Amino acid sequence: MTDQSTQPRPTLEAVAARAGVSRATVSRVVNGGEGVREPLVERVRRAVDELGYVPNQAARSLVTRRHDAVAVVIAEPETRVFADPFFALQLRGISKELTAHDSQLVLLLTEGRDDHARVARYLAGGHVDGALVFSLHLDDPLPSLIHGVPTVYGGRPGWSDGSHGVVYVDCDNRGGAREAVRHLVGLGRTRVAHITGALDQTSAVDRLDGFRDVMVDADPRLIVESDFTPGGGERAMRELLDRRPDVDAVFAANDLMAVGAMRALRERGRRVPEDVAVIGFDDMLPFTEQADPPLTTVRQDIEEMGRLMARLLLRGLDRSGSAVADVPSSVVLPTTLVRRVSA
Amino acid sequence: MTDQSTQPRPTLEAVAARAGVSRATVSRVVNGGEGVREPLVERVRRAVDELGYVPNQAARSLVTRRHDAVAVVIAEPETRVFADPFFALQLRGISKELTAHDSQLVLLLTEGRDDHARVARYLAGGHVDGALVFSLHLDDPLPSLIHGVPTVYGGRPGWSDGSHGVVYVDCDNRGGAREAVRHLVGLGRTRVAHITGALDQTSAVDRLDGFRDVMVDADPRLIVESDFTPGGGERAMRELLDRRPDVDAVFAANDLMAVGAMRALRERGRRVPEDVAVIGFDDMLPFTEQADPPLTTVRQDIEEMGRLMARLLLRGLDRSGSAVADVPSSVVLPTTLVRRVSA
DNA sequence: CGGCCAAAAGGGAGCGCTCTCAGCAATGAA
DNA sequence: TTCATTGCTGAGAGCGCTCCCTTTTGGCCG
């Protein structure tokens, strides 16, 4: 275990002694140096460097009641998180933003229901300044367990009835879906199908709604419920081909399913996009670009969503801001259609 | 921002008052209840529940100098982390193990060199009990910056000269590679090529060594250096086909490259496995299973590696254990060949 | 050159907890 | 009955820091 050496780390006191000033002055310098005269600032800085002083966060938190830490809760039953770079990208955005604000990222992964209580207890314990919560399913009990902690959700929670003080960041799932389907229609396709995501998530529901907005009286057989996985997309496509062999376009609720659908199409001897146009959602690079054929899809800026979530949370946390300005509200990011080969 | 309500949380003091005992007794009960008589334990427990008491971790850390938190450092230049479920799986294993030990996971993602100093400072700051560090490249400056924090590395660090007190968890890259290549040879293939990973990582070097162990005097043109990405694998395969059109088998240093290679092969009209057998490494589900054709590969249990890293670190941290037994040492996990269709 | 005032520096309390040690009751031995 | 012993429980001292409040300093005006 590389290095256990624990020579006692220097305290504020030690720095103060070395610089020949009081603890309070060192504290002021360490926290920005406001209202301390230049020569002293200089002396203190030198002492800090020489001693390699690093503030003890525990002691600081004890009195300030801030932690400079934010919890990221990923409540996802099993697999998806790991087949899907989605969260990794969000994490990256979050991490960048938190780093810029000197906050730490405490990652809470849950496995099954029991874990929810654990997470709730942790959040309630006031160990973090706020929470970013992901991937709630409609019936997820977690939100009701979260109290007393400022929270921003990733994706519109199912129970968010309009506003009600819930803050979330989402992309324009419905609008993006509409654009995708309109694109297919614009291509001259008339038998446009939809492979839905798991309908216990609002993103899947919203994308389905977007599909219906355009295909107002679509044959119900052209809509197949699936689950956001490649395998699910493949199965759904087969079923679609059985139900309506004349299908000439498919909008899949995410890229993974679109890729699965293309596999099923190839298997059945249909060409993409000549026989059946396929369009996905997310623009999950590099999979979309390297799919065969490269996938036309609806892009959402996932990393930006993560960054925004963190920014919103931190803004809400920032007590110094003017009272009115810093009540954050939800944000819905735009999507863009990325045309490649598949549609 | 869902819920800002901050009624002051109850302290030990409050619980003590309610239970009619001293602070010390409550503390004892909260920390396991050793040496406290049953009726008192009961009374304290009730008071804790009634008040919804949760210990203040900051106050506790201040005196115990433990944090019940471990940093996970992922130092990866840009893309790979996000195209590759590798880290997600490791994180999951780590998370499980830490949760079981009531430790928190503080995630530190670095972006470029400047970040290293930040991470080093954070670790040196003694905010966590230990660190799990990933994905070091041979020339990575991070290890030299880490001092005073027990650390376990994910994957053998390049500079770990035998032992030297460095603890890491890795899989048997060399042995796995040997097995893969032997399998190809056993299939009767004689022009076996290798697409390497990024050779600034020990995993890539070890896999190359394993290849050479078996193909002792391979034509150097049958070895192409690449970078672990699908695009890299594709380019490498094309080059291989140009250099040695008679190549009849390829061992790619990971699955992503194997998939890229298969794409290049298809593009050039070679059938897999009939004309060219392909084998990967990692067994990155579901990509390997759903590749076309399903990919034969060398499996390593990534989640288990994560779990093991955490376990090793925690064991080293555990002061209560007997002095001798708990000096952890590195672990190399076995790999297994998974036969599917591509070889 | 003294006095006044604002700004800068210091003193000290206390955040909530753990842990050592003292106190004290109950028990058994002398 | 008395005294040592054991085993709980309580009192109190800090852990390292921030922040309020007091004291000191230094600039400037009269």
TrEMBL record, chains A, B:
Keyword Transcription regulation: yes
Domain of life of the native organism: Bacteria
HTH lacI-type domain residues: 10-64
Coiled-coil regions listed in the entry: none
Keywords (A to Z) from UniProt: DNA-binding, Transcription, Transcription regulation
InterPro entries on file: HTH_LacI (IPR000843), LacI/GalR-like_sensor (IPR046335), Lambda_DNA-bd_dom_sf (IPR010982), Peripla_BP_I (IPR028082)
Pfam families: LacI, Peripla_BP_3
GO molecular function, one term: DNA-binding transcription factor activity
Protein name per UniProt: LacI family transcriptional regulator
Species name: Streptomyces dioscori
